[in-house]
Amino acid sequence: MASARFCEQCGSPLSATARFCPNCGFSLTGAAPAVAGSSPAPVAGPRATTSLPAGLTPWVLPVVAIIAIVGYAIVSRPAAGTSPAVATGDGATILAPDISSLSPDERVDRLFNRIMSLASAGKDDSVAFFAPMAVNSFAALMPLNVHRRYDLGLVLLVSGETAGARAQADTILSSSPTHLLGLALAMRAANASGNTAEGKRLATKFTSVLAAERAKGLPEYADHAPDITDAIEEAAGRRKSAISRAK
Q1: Lowest-pLDDT range, 92-96, 192-196, 198-202, 208-212?
Q2: Residues with Cβ < 8 Å from 140, sequence gap 6 or more?
Q3: Which in 4, 118, 185, 209 has the greatest CB count within 10 A?
Q4: Three-state secondary-structure class, residue 116
Q5: CATH code of the domain covering residue 202
Q6: How high is the pLDDT of residue 40?
């Protein structure tokens, strides 16, 4: 069995075919490391041994490099409480919300409200940027209650993920077939995907169960009262989908 190889410069273990040390970049063949876009280096003569200052051992060099990298990361990191600027394809430069110190519920609320505001302003590229962040935040709240599942469905809907929005609606309706939020979300997802026949069917069902469902006084109905009012108008054909939510 071949004996193990170690870098002459820093002592790191090497593979049998290594030409450069993966830790410090020391050449094992006498050739300089290749640089993208540069001309091939000429063949080198006998490799010169680089001497270190007295008392400086070879392992010090990688340690110094690591300290320099960490120092740069600390200096370049945004100050606490600040938000990085984000340029989006719709021509806007916006600040990403600082959610690092928020609870999982607060993160969801912050991102949800930001996305709904951007959607109402027609800033689709900005919505597409923040939507994945929001979806990941919802994942931290699993299992989702009806209130949160409906919110997730709205985020998916305004970001163009109509199939995902309908899946959230169907999950709500699987346990409560006449739930107003499930029907409203399913109706909107069907219309957004161009399935107007399904949208009309769901609108009819929504209208038929409206009074009985409202009489239940469910807390999520109070939380989403303005949105339910909008859904009533949409189901009656008096307006196009307008997604809103009262906190």
Answers
A1: 92-96
A2: 104, 107, 108
A3: 185
A4: helix
A5: 1.25.40.10
A6: 42
Give the 3-state DSSP-derived string for 183-241, with helices as H, strands as E and coil as C: HHHHHHHHHHCCCHHHHHHHHHHHHHHHHHHHCCCCHHHHHCHHHHHHHHHHHCCCCCC
Distance CA 159, CA 58 (A): 54
Q: Do the domain assignments include residue 209? A: yes
Domain hosting residue 210, numbered range: 102-235
In a domain? residue 114: yes
Q: Identify whether the C-beta of residue 61 lies closer than 8 Å to the C-beta of residue 54.
A: no
Q: According to the model, what pLDDT value does residue 31 have?
A: 52
Contact 218, 147 (CB under 8 A): no
Domain total for the chain? 1
For the ranges 10-14, 20-24, 220-224, the one whose mean pLDDT is highest: 220-224
The mean pLDDT value for 119-124 works out to 92
Examine the pLDDT at 136 and tell me if it is beyond 50: yes
Across 194-216, average pLDDT: 97
Q: Where are the beta strands (DSSP E) in the chain?
A: 5-6, 13-14, 85-87, 93-95
Question: How large is the C-alpha radius of gyration of the chain?
Answer: 29
Quote the tokens at residue 2.
């071949």
Give the pLDDT confidence score for residue 26 in this predicted structure. Answer: 65
**Can you tell me which residue has the tokens 């999520």?**
220
pTM comes to 0.61
* Contact (Cβ atoms closer than 8 angstroms) between residue 73 and residue 65: no
